[in-house]
Amino acid sequence: MVRVLGITAMVKRIKTAHRSILSHLFTLLVPMLVPLLILGSLSTFLIKLYIQDQIDTKNDALLSQTKSYMELSFREMDSLSANFSANPVLSVTMKDILDTGQITESNFDLLKVIRNFVDSTVYANPFIYSLYIYFDNEDKRFLSSVTGINTVDKFYDSNWYSLYEGHDNERVWTENRILQRRKSEPATRVISIYNRLRVANGGGVVVMNIKAEYIESLLRELPAINSQSILLMDKNKHIIAKNSDVNYMHLFNLGLFSSNDSFSRDMKIDGRTYKVDMLTSARFGWKFVSIVPKSALYSLPSKLMLLTGLLLIISTIIGLFLAYSLSRKKYLTLQMVNAILHAAERGTPLPKVDQGRKNDTYGYITENLVKKFVENEFLTIQLSERKYKLQVMEYIALHAQLNPHFLYNTLETIYWKVASYTGKPNEANEMIENLSGVLRYSLDSSAHFVPLQQEIKYTLRYVDIQHIRYKEKFDVVWRIDEDAACCEVMKLILQPLIENSIYHGIRMKQDKSIIRIKAELIGEEHMRLTVTDTGAGMDKARRLEVLSKLNSDIEGGQHIGLQNTHKRLNITYGERYSIRILSKKNWGTAISLTFPSRSQ
Predict the structure, then answer these.
(1) Is 3.30.450 the CATH number for 222-297?
(2) 586, 475 in Cβ contact below 8 A?
(3) Which residues does 488 contact at the CB level (< 8 Å), separation at least 6?
(4) Any idea which architecture 74-214 has in CATH?
(5) CA 137 to chain centre
(6) Cβ(254)–Cβ(193) below 8 Å
(7) What is the pLDDT at residue 366?
(8) How far apart are CA 464 and CA 433, in angstroms?
(9) Around Cβ 105, how many Cβ atoms within 10 Å?
C-alpha cells in the first residue's frame, strides 16, 4: 500500500512538472512568435509591393542620370565646335594655315588663340586623351593638342582620318579605338567623338579622344545593385563601357537593341527573368542599357522571409529551453520550501539552502531568512572593528602631534651649535635651515593640495641640500608653463621624483648630469609633470621590475618614494592615473605623471 502511494505521488509530481513546462512554454512562445510572424509577413509583403512600384522609376532615373551626366561631361566638344561655327575668322585662318602649312605674322596671333583654347580644354579635363582640329586640305594637315600642326601620314594616329573619310553624311558620331603614342608606353583605349564642321569652302571636323576608363569609372560610381549590369553601346551595338565584369549580353539577341526608341520590359531566358531597360541618346547615338535579374531585385524580401523563419526556429528553441529551466527551478524551489516547512514542523534541523538559485522568488525568500541572522552578527563584528580602528587612529594622531615640535627644537639647537664652531653660518647651517623648511612644509597638515609654484619653492630647498652634498655633480633645468604654475597639485609630488633621479641615476655616474623638470597643461583638464635625468639609466628588465613593485602591496624597498607617489596618485585621482617610466641603460631615465588639473 505504501509503495502504491509512493508511485502515485511520483506520477502526480511528473504531471505537475509537465503542466508547468507547457504553461511556461505557452506563456513565453505566444508573445514572442505571434508578433514576429505578423511583422515578418507584413514586412515582406510591403517591401515586395514597394519594390515593384519603384523598380521602373529607379531604373529610368538611373539611366537618365547617366545620360545627362555623360552629355554634360562632354560639353567641351560643343563649346569648341561652336567657336569655329560662330567665328568665321577663326575657321578661315585655321584652314589657311592647314592649306599652306605656313605661319605668318597676320595669322600667328589667331593661331595662338586657337592653341590656347585647345590646350586649356585638354588640361582642364583630365579625361580628354587628345584633341584634333582638321579642315580639308590636300596635304592632310591638322592641329593636334599633342604635337601641334602635323600631317596624317607622319602622325602616330592616322586611323582617325580613315574613319572620318568613311562618314560623309553624319554630323556627330563616335568610334571605339586603341591608341599608343610610343612603343614603350602601354596602349590606351579611347572613345573618339567626331563633330563635323561646315565652312564656306569645304568641310572639317573636331575629334575629341576620351579615355574609355573615365566613362567606365562614371558607370562604376552609379548606385547599382551587385548583379546589375549597366552598359554604354554605340549605334552599331558595340559595347563602349560597362560598370562591372558581369556580362548578360551573350544571352540576348542584339536585334533587341537595334531600335532607337527607349523601352523597359521583362524577358525570360533559360528559366530566369531579367529586367531590361534601354535609353537612347540623340546627341551621340549612344544607348544606355540596364540588365538585372529580377531575383536580385527581390533578394531583400527573400532574405527577410528566410530571416523570419530562422528567428521563429531560434525563438522556439529558446522558448523550450527557458520553459524547461523555469519549470525545473520552480519545482526544485517548491521542494526546498516544502522540506523546510516539514523540518520546522518536526523540529528537525533545517535543510541547507542552495546558494546558486538566487533568481527564484521562493529561493530568494528562503535564502534571506538564513542570511539575515548572519548579516546581523557580521554587522556587530564590523562595528566593533571600526570602533577599535578609530581608537588606534586617534592615538596615532595624538602621538604624531608631538614629533614635529620635538624635531623643530632639535634642529634649532643643532643649527646654533654648528654656527658656534665657526663663529658664523656655514654650509651645514644652510643645509639645516633648508631641511627645517622642508620638514615644516611636509608636516603641515592644513592642506593636501598646494599651488605648483609653492611646491617648486620648497622643492628648491631640497635641491640645494643635495647640491651641497654632491658638490655640483648635477644641474637642474626648470621648464614650467605659466598656466601650470598656478594650478594646484598634491603636496610633495616633485621631491620623491628628484630624489629617485639623484640616488638611482646621478649618484652612480662619474660625469656631471642634468635633471630637467617640466610642467605643462595637456588640454584643459590635465597636467603633466616630467622629471628627466641623464644618469645611469636602466635596462628593460630592471624597468619592468620597478614598475611591478609600484603596483605591489609590499611596502619598502629601494624606490619607496616612487611607490608612495604612485599610490597617492591612485588614491587621489583613481587607478587609471599612475607613474610612467622610460629608461635606457647609460643614457638616463624619464618619469612622467599625468593627472587632472586643479585651478586655485
Answers:
(1) yes
(2) no
(3) 449, 450, 451, 452, 598, 599, 600
(4) 2-Layer Sandwich (3.30)
(5) 63
(6) no
(7) 53
(8) 11
(9) 6
